[in-house]
Write a structure and sequence with these properties.
2 strands; 230 residues; 7 helices; mainly alpha
Length: 230
């Protein structure tokens, strides 16, 4: 189920969703470059780099170690600055994603609705009741390249992470980005969510931290609700 933000999101969440955008944008860059459109690919790569660099500033600061109150206060400041910058980029992307999605669909000759992950309950073959012969379903364009499926629908287990049509009304990443940006206008505190756990696990895999205690010693806010899975 997609995350719904009614309260301000903590830094870990902005990091998580920025990384999701980075992956989708890098996929767009690959597809454009492979099909002779390097200029469009460069635009997507530039967006990905800006998003990545923005969140890595507080992450790398935390990696150096946050032992004193002054260091922890500085980290908090860096996190808030990264959130402010991420929100500005998210707002800009919300304007551009419908055009970006439409352009890549036209370029690849696909419709985002037809690029869904296959439903395992659906049969690839059906029997014609009149003739008794097998009816083979026609494969949809783009169904052979899983990168295209992930671009529009996200990974199979996290289908809220795709760009879809790029419109907020069609959900996916645009819907989540919109909720996060709107929540920043409220007077709420930064409420913990499960996505901080995902980023903690990712950080551990990339040697940023190996245990929760290490993360806390580094000064990184570990914001998540324990128990349930995404």
């Amino acid at each position: 189920m997609a995350q719904s933000y009614s309260q301000k999101a903590p830094f870990n969440d902005w990091w998580y969703w920025s990384e999701c955008l980075v992956k989708r944008l890098r996929t767009m860059a690959e597809l454009y470059n492979e099909n002779g459109e390097p200029e469009r690919g460069d635009v997507a790569k530039d967006w990905a780099k800006r998003l990545k660099d923005n969140c890595m500033t507080p992450v790398m600061a935390a990696r150096k170690g946050m032992k004193t109150d002054e260091q922890k206060a500085e980290l908090k400041k860096l996190e808030e600055e990264a959130i402010f910058s991420a929100a500005a980029m998210f707002r800009e992307l919300l304007v551009n994603l419908p055009f970006m999605s439409s352009a890549i669909q036209d370029f690849l000759s696909v419709d985002w609705r037809d690029c869904k992950w296959p439903d395992e309950s659906e049969k690839d073959e059906e029997i014609d009741e009149d003739t008794g012969l097998v009816i083979r379903k026609k494969k949809k364009k783009g169904s052979g390249d899983l990168r295209i499926t992930e671009l529009f629908w996200g990974p199979k287990v996290h289908q809220d992470e795709g760009i879809r049509s790029g419109e907020v009304a069609d959900g996916g990443l645009p819907g989540i980005l919109y909720n996060m940006v709107m929540a920043e206008k409220t007077s709420s505190t930064r409420a913990p969510t499960e996505y901080g756990q995902a980023m903690l696990a990712s950080a551990a895999q990339n040697n940023l931290a190996t245990t929760m205690s290490q993360m806390e010693k580094m000064g990184v806010q570990v914001n998540f609700k324990p128990g349930s899975s995404m």
